[in-house]
């Protein structure tokens, strides 16, 4: 056998493999997983039934056009069907957007720190990532992002609320930013946590899309709708982009189980959004407690909170794990803690209370 292995693209050498949040209960007492921004509620019985029914025919390929789901989404958002595209989670759709817009020599702008997949999928496309630091308050620096635009810019991600800080950008600043973006640059408003927003100053990306042909909105069923394990996300975009998303889709990427669960979830939206309301209540409880304890925590509009811990990050994460909750450390920066069941949140708050506030 030859010693030579197949030649791989050089760009892959520097690309890290996406790291998922650590599961709960892997050694040690940690029983609550607060590391992946998941919805802690189990599936609704009606949603489970629709998945079970779909499972009876998984010997067949799924409906590649996601017809039923497209109809539901079209009605729910008041957008034409051909302005919609589904994919294997919103991260799958984000990767398709890169394939559709960017390649070697092109530039992709996003804030940093933000969603970990952005640098990975950008570099896989061959394009150059342009990372614009968050402000000292952990918010997108939209002026600096606009200043970073060049002739080579093809796509810009705005993560609103931002993962992992939970911070948001408001209507006026986003509109001002969009006014500065050339028409031939695609702006992707990643709204994975949209349903958790209570700040009325945050615009709904779908309203911006209606007025701006270069805006694309990314949404997911993984968070508020609790379908993370089924992998279904979607984009709302004007026709040329939506058509490109259909071309770049992995054939049959969204399973019939996922499609049926998404349809059933949209039909059970009131109940699911009621759960989101309870999680938002828990978020307030956690934020109030952390602030009363003396922590400086950026205002969050998502289902997680961000503690800037610098060099103490890994230590804090280890103390949490010992106490029974798994959180998400970003070494040298901070920890992101998902708002989960009240019991898990209580454990986290207790650890935070006993932990020194200054390094
Ligand atoms: N965007 C953001 C900002 C996220 O935090 C996540 C999940 N962590 C995603 C997109 C992708 O979610 P999914 O692929 O499950 O839809």
Looking at this protein, list some descriptive labels.
359 residues; Aromatic amino acid aminotransferase; binds 4'-deoxy-4'-aminopyridoxal-5'-phosphate; transferase; alpha/beta; globular; aminotransferase
Task: Walk me through what this model shows.
The chain has helices spanning 45-55, 67-77, 89-101, 117-125, 142-147, 171-180, 205-211, 239-248, 256-267, 269-292, 313-323, 342-354, and strands at residues 32-33, 84-87, 107-112, 128-133, 153-159, 186-190, 215-220, 233-236, 304-308, 325-326, 328-330, 334-338. By secondary structure, the protein is an alpha/beta fold. The chain starts with 31 loop residues before the first strand and ends in a 5-residue tail after the last helix. Helix 1 (45-55) packs antiparallel against helix 9, helix 2 packs parallel to helix 9 and helix 10 (269-292) runs parallel beside helix 12. The mean pLDDT is 96. The longest helix has 24 residues, at 269-292. The strands form three sheets. It has a seven-stranded mixed β-sheet, with helices on both faces. 4'-deoxy-4'-aminopyridoxal-5'-phosphate binds at residues 37, 89-91, 115, 159, 163, 190, 192, 220, 222, 228, 233.
Question: What would you say about this model in short?
Answer:
The chain is 38% helix and 15% strand. It is of the alpha/beta class and 359 residues long. Strand 5, helix 6 (171-180) and strand 6 (186-190) form a beta-alpha-beta unit.
């Amino acid at each position: 056998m030859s010693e030579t292995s197949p030649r791989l693209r050089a760009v892959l050498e520097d690309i890290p493999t996406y790291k998922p949040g650590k599961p709960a209960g892997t050694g040690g007492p940690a029983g609550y997983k607060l590391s992946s921004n998941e919805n802690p509620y189990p599936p609704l019985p009606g949603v489970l039934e629709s998945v079970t029914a779909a499972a009876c025919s998984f010997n067949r390929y799924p409906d590649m056009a996601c017809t039923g789901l497209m109809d539901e989404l079209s009605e729910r958002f008041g957008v034409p069907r051909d302005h919609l595209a589904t994919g294997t989670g919103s991260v799958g759709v984000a990767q398709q957007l890169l394939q559709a817009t960017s390649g070697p020599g092109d530039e992709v702008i996003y804030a940093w720190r933000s969603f970990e997949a952005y640098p990975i999928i950008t570099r896989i496309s061959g394009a150059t990532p342009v990372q614009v630091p968050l402000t000292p308050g952990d918010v997108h620096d939209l002026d600096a992002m606009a200043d970073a635009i060049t002739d080579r810019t093809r796509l810009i991600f705005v993560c609103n609320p931002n993962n992992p800080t939970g911070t948001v950008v408001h209507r006026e600043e986003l509109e001002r930013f969009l006014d500065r973006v050339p028409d031939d640059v695609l702006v992707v408003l990643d709204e994975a946590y949209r349903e958790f927003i209570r700040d009325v100053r945050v615009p709904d990306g779908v309203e911006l899309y209606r007025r701006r042909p270069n805006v694309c909105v990314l949404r997911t069923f993984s968070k508020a709708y609790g379908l993370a394990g089924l992998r279904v996300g979607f984009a709302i975009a004007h026709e040329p982009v939506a058509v490109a998303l259909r071309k770049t889709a992995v054939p049959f990427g969204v399973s019939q189980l996922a499609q049926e669960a998404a349809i059933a979830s949209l039909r059970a939206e009131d109940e699911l959004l009621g759960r989101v309301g309870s999680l938002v209540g828990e978020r307030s409880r956690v934020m109030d407690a952390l602030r009363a304890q003396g922590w400086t925590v950026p205002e969050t509009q998502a289902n997680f909170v961000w503690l800037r811990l610098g060099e103490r990050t890994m230590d804090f994460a280890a103390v949490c794990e010992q106490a029974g909750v798994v959180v998400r450390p970003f070494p040298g920066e901070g920890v992101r803690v998902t708002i989960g069941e009240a019991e898990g949140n209580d454990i986290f708050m207790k650890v935070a209370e006993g932990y020194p506030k200054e390094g």
